[in-house]
Please model this.
Amino acid sequence: MWMTVGTRRFAITLADTEAAREFAAMLPLSIDMPDLNNNEKHAELRKPLPTNAIRPGTIRSGDLMLYGPRTLVVFYQTFNSPYAYTRLGHVDEPAGLAQALGSGSVRIEFSKG
Model:
């Protein structure tokens, strides 16, 4: 799967979860994602996905997660978190991700191959 931000394209490896498979079935998807806490972009999906939330403890730059059944989250900083998420996937090479996403709202395109 691919995530495109402006001219930057990032490969994403999907997790082996029902939520990830249903997210992939929604593609292609172009979505405006505002910034939150200077470490993530988030947006509400048009339909809920199945959840299997866990508390990962450490969030890694490049994690693609689901918060609740509808909030898609792309993390661009590594930090510790007490919150629970359903794993959707991870950016294979997150170097440059924070710079590509910037500090404000950004349009992100998710696509298959």
Notes: The two ends are 5 Å apart (CA to CA).
